Amino acid sequence: MEEGKRAVGRLCSICSQRRPALKRPKTLEQICRECFYAVFEEEIHRVIMENHLFKAGERIAVAASGGKDSTVLAYVLSELNRRHDYGLDLFLLSVDEGITGYRDDSLETVKRNEIQYGLPLKVVSYKDLYGWTMDEIVKVIGLKNNCTFCGVFRRQALDRGAALLKVDKLVTGHNADDMAETVLLNILRGDIARLSRCTFIMTGEDGPIPRCKPFKYTYEKEIYAYFKKLDYFSTECIYSPNAYRGFAREFIKDLERIRPQAILDIIRSGEDFRISSSTRMPDQGTCERCGYISSQKLCKACVLLEGLNRGLPKLGISRTREAINGSERLHKTGRLPKAEAERPILQSKPCGNLEF
Amino acid sequence: MSCSGSGGGTCQSLCRRTKDDEVQPPPPSVSPKDGRDEPGSKVDQSLCSKCGEEKPAWNSLCLACFRSSLFGKFKLAVTSNAMISPSDKVLVAFSGGSASRVALQFIHELRCKSLKNWDASKSQGLPVFAVGVAFVDESAVGLNPSIGMSNIIEEINSVVSELAPAKKELHVTSMEGLFCKNFDDGRSCLNELLDSITDATGKEDFTQYLRMLSLQKIALDNNYTKLLLGSCASKMARLIISATVKGQGFSLPANLQYVDSRWEVPVVLPLRDCLAQELAMLCHLDGLKTTQLFNSPVGINGLVSSFVARLQEENPSRERTIVRTGEKLKAFSFNKFTQDGYYDFLPSIIRPKFQNVNHEESKPEFLCPICGSPLSDSEWKHLKGTKGMYQTSIEMFASQCCQSCRFQILPKDTSSL
């Protein structure tokens, strides 16, 4: 990181022995590499303890993509589990989206991690679960909206994989920057229901497999600094280089530059929002077809999948609500599905996908 | 959630209506048309989508319809929130910008109408509200030094005096007047105070607070009962994002409502549903003179402003969506008028709407002594937990401030106060 230009002659503000190697964005302290590793791990431990994320004896799946966040997460968790005797059974869970040149390489990293950290690995693939790989999906729908498919499918694939592993909880590597970004995006799209729950450190506690985010307060920068000592994979997805969440991500990075604390402040804002009790929240139910949680009759994955299988890949992408109800209304009114799906999208932007 | 979700009350219908206006222009004019097109360029054949008679001037509306749609939003905000009662003396905060220029114009027109009604009414029992104008001279804090302040004040004077028939009083005050009667002492006091704030964003926010104090002072000294600001939807959208970024998620809705009675003279924001772009366009089309006095925002506020501007460019309804998100957050008890009998002047049909709400929430809020934000539960706990641990009154004061002010406004070392 900022290898001590100003810090020449100064010493680590924690141990006062070694030369500082980096400046912590949270506290602006100049600290040495050894102290950084110790503080970093200690902080994760504190978050886990304070929020009662785990109970002894639980089986925990770490959602591992082979990228920076999840690699660090898998390593730190197995380390802390040993050091503080959490008594957890840890597993690695990966999703194979079927993206040649991207996922196959990153899966290799996960497989190496399996050996290095001694954690059993389970890989679930889109091909097995849905009958489609992302490569095949992109061939049908093109490079627009493909992230919608991938995102919806991945969410469900992780849950299904976790069920196969019979784990009690799923941990993901979402970091503070991701959280801040999600808060902003939900404000930008007016999604009050998601805004109210996007800052929870644990979600789905009443569901079969709760998810938690031990890196909720951990800066991406620090994760990057930490994983320098680990084996990792780093390329961008070939189908969405840089596109994902563009503006908001850039904005957060700019904010961090002038006020590093801003990221934590956004998360705190998200936690403190006074959501009016009269605001209507969507009812959580289950999908009629696959039994997955859904606020509609069919879950999003089933709607998207139906579109793919029937050769109407736009189903479920344009104007969410109508597309979902649309498949029902078709039977009643006898209207052609094509007309339904290809209607001009009058108000696609405000409530649909926020794609910049 | 969809944009047609519940919540938001009156504005909801308003937003929907404007959206429909935008969405349903007659097909031939849709494709090549940019909102900024002047009448008579490419869209000769198409007519105003509302009246169908005139040529469109903005967003497929003719000037008259565009104007009346904006005035409609203004009036709806005033009436549905009971902003102005007949006995009020309203002070309009005028900066020279387009938003406050439109606010002044509209309140003037509203008063003219009321006067006309008053003349025509038999009993003349209810009085007609009075209007005054305030301008805060901020040359001391280095705003656009290139323009001579005396010229600007002269210009504003001419704007205000042109608003006939009813004459409006213009109050000009300088920010340093808050500190000291003596001009030079006041100025050095002010500069010393602002220089002690090292964070650029904090300094800007504090200046804003001082501006509000100056306006309040004018209002109190001259017996005004309402302070009217021209804050528009675009400003609110920026405020929502920047408050979120500063960690003020809890207190955010306080500054967002049509009415804010935390101040001694309650503040009202009737233009909250109009976009800055619309207001600027109206000034342009109506030939209303404006001057841009404020420097563009700095620090966090500057970043947020350019971020929102970029989003708005990409999707013209983004600012409204942000404001709608903010509207879904719960307001505070001071976001309506609190004095007894305030709503008595309202027609009996709509009076219960306000009175019922009054009893709902009676929990007193503790406000940050700097920015006036209500303290969140965790801040409140922090304050209680540290009670009695302070030796000096300054430490005591610092402990009562919200977390955001403690970070960006108070000096890190409290002993320097």
Strand order of the largest sheet of chain A: 5-4-3-6-8-7
Mean pLDDT of chain A: 81
CATH-derived architecture of the largest domain in chain A = 3-Layer(aba) Sandwich
For the report, how would you describe the main beta sheet of chain B?
A: 6 strands, mixed
Low-pLDDT segments, ≥5 res of chain B = 1-44
Major sheet strand order of chain B: 5-4-3-6-8-7
Order of helices and strands of chain A: EEHEHEHEHHHEHHEEHHHEEHHHH
Alpha-carbon distance between the two ends of chain A: 30 Å
Strand content of chain B: 5-15%
Domain count of chain A:
3
**What is the number of beta strands of chain B?**
8
Q: What's the total count of β strands of chain A?
A: 10
> What structural class should be given to the helix and strand makeup of chain B?
alpha/beta
Oligomer: heterodimer
Rg over CA atoms of chain B? 23 Å
The proportion of residues in beta strands of chain A is 5-15%
Number of helices of chain A: 15
Region (Disordered) (chain B): 1-41
Main location (chain B): cytoplasm
GO molecular function (chain B): nucleotidyltransferase activity; sulfurtransferase activity; tRNA binding
Pathway (chain B): tRNA modification; 5-methoxycarbonylmethyl-2-thiouridine-tRNA biosynthesis
